Amino acid sequence: MSETGVSEKVPVEQIELDRLNPRIRKFLEMYDGDPTPQQIFLALGAGNDEESEAPTGPTFQKLKQSIITHRGIIHPIILNRQSDGTLVCIEGNTRLALYKDFLKRGVDGEWEFIPALVHEDLEDTEVHAIRLQAHLVGPRPWDPYSKAKYLHELRHTNDMPFAMIVDFCGGRQSEVMTFIEAYIDMENHYRPLISEDGAFDPKRFSGFVELQKPGIKKVIAETGHSLTDFATWVHEDKLKPLNTVRLLPRILKNKKARDVFYKKGARAAEMALDKPKIDHNLQAAPLDQLARALTNKLDALPYDEFKDLRSNPGSDTIGALLEVKERVTEFLREFG
Known about the structure:
Layout: E1 6-11, E2 15-16, H1 22-30, H2 37-43, H3 58-69, E3 77-81, E4 87-91, H4 93-105, E5 113-120, H5 124-135, H6 144-157, H7 162-168, H8 173-190, H9 205-211, H10 216-222, H11 227-235, H12 248-252, H13 255-264, H14 266-272, H15 280-284, H16 287-299, H17 303-311, H18 316-333
Parallel strand pairs: 2-4, 3-5
Antiparallel strand pairs: 1-5, 3-4
Helix pairs in contact: 2-4, 6-8, 8-9, 8-11, 13-14
């Protein structure tokens, strides 16, 4: 950042919503005047990770009630004072909208001024950096679809260098690339299936993230299917839960499982797959021994065998290794 912002209490009526924010802009195009706080909250993707909560449901109400109860916000919003003196909220639009709404409706409390960190005439790249830090790696993250949409816009609309996007996101290059590719696939193949924009379900984005894993697209093509077929399976809940996407290579290459999948979905098709035989002595071994044995096995893997696996990313072996990776990662999260 070119300079440090200054902490101030700023009159809310002097602050404009961030009309260039890709989340809010859609709503500004759909409605006359400023969007409501609920619409902004929905547009920004906040609270959408939990399927049990509606986008404007409990999480939004908790935020609203917390601000009323505490007579204000804990974290200052972030403003950019542009060269013409206009104050634009680049982080904290929902909280600003709530202050404006409380003031307009005469809610009990002092809502005329809002705590803010004010920057002077930020460059576009600095504005993007603040958004990325606040919503991709910060304490108030956007849902995955909204992150991907923003990353795609920075890369393909704003022509921001990929290396710069990765730097802003903390160096997670593979995740950035995966999110952008998943967003492109979802927009190109899933959205056209939806007759009304309101039926578009951003929570299905995780299925398109799974689609980017090694070998899945290749097997879809090799078995005579298309990405539109994949999007249709997602839309029709054939791939539910969405992590069953990882089973597609095995399902599509197995006629019996494939026929079950077409009729009943991936979870039922999984039951039709041949279960691999597991050595009972191996299964009884302690976890540390199994982990070390796998490490040693990978270290000693002959190069020819490695080349064979690399040329066939949809193989059962690669599928099993990917499943181990995900299970171990999920397991280790419990230990911080």
